[in-house]
């Protein structure tokens, strides 16, 4: 396995301590947990998605562990504008605030609350199980372009997190790029469900949800590869990453940085562990690795 040179990097307008970020939705609801993940070796963190009004989320069960991952249907629970109080603990750190809304104007209103404290925004245009939000908008290239433009007009680096649950993810990535996105994040969870054979009913309260974890890693690699061919802005790979070798594979597909989510549930120290294996003073310049599998 090759190694990379350590040190800070700027990806999609955000200065990160290294190439590894905490993905949205995992330990991103409090300033204390975000600070803990940064201390443990992450180069940056993405918060839980914040929306235009407080939401309790879907009825439980909201999560089921499956072979190679987790299926969740949290339903975007969030405290809305009050989340600003959590960010005091991580002021000045590379914290990307994940935002969602039901229309371009709602995305912009939510982002406006965090304009002075966010290192960047990640637009959740990809949650697969929240009617009227996430992938409901994120499957439509015109809406993706409009939402991106509305938030980017605030002057803060704007990343767009894409859904894999579309026929052609590259079309959606290109729409984000047209809207002025500084980076694309690929991918959010893959639509999935389990049924309890004893209860003869869906396991999740919402019936279906989104699959994350190592089971979706090959899907994420393929999406990053396709986006790299179609887009010129940086891509941040996300989906099932759990090792330094996975990080390199994502980078070879075209990712300039990588988000880690579900693997944190099994190993809270995963950022330090991966960074310990990934970086060496005689390592390669990441620019030699990003996209090297193409051509
Ligand atoms: C959720 O809170 O429902 C998960 C968010 C997502 O899948 O984007």
Describe this structure in words.
- With 295 residues, the chain is an alpha/beta fold.
- The chain has a single domain, classed as TIM Barrel.
- 29% of the residues lie in helices and 20% in strands.
- It contains 10 helices and 16 strands.
- The protein has an 8-stranded parallel beta barrel, surrounded by 6 helices. A 4-stranded antiparallel β-sheet has the order 5-6-14-11, with no helix packed on it.
- The two termini are 21 Å apart.
- The site of succinic acid has 14 residues, from loops.
What secondary-structure arrangement, pairings included, does this model have?
Blueprint: E1 9-11, E2 14-16, E3 20-22, H1 31-39, E4 44-46, E5 63-66, E6 69-72, E7 95-99, H2 104-113, E8 120-124, H3 135-138, H4 141-152, E9 158-162, H5 169-178, E10 183-186, E11 190-192, E12 195-196, E13 201-202, E14 209-212, H6 217-230, E15 235-238, H7 244-253, E16 255-260, H8 263-266, H9 270-278, H10 286-289
Parallel strand pairs: 3-4, 3-16, 4-7, 7-8, 8-9, 9-10, 10-15, 15-16
Antiparallel strand pairs: 1-2, 5-6, 6-14, 11-14, 12-13
Bound molecules: succinic acid.
Gist?
With 295 residues, the protein is α/β, with parallel strands linked by helices. It has helices at 31-39, 104-113, 135-138, 141-152, 169-178, 217-230, 244-253, 263-266, 270-278, 286-289; strands at 9-11, 14-16, 20-22, 44-46, 63-66, 69-72, 95-99, 120-124, 158-162, 183-186, 190-192, 195-196, 201-202, 209-212, 235-238, 255-260.
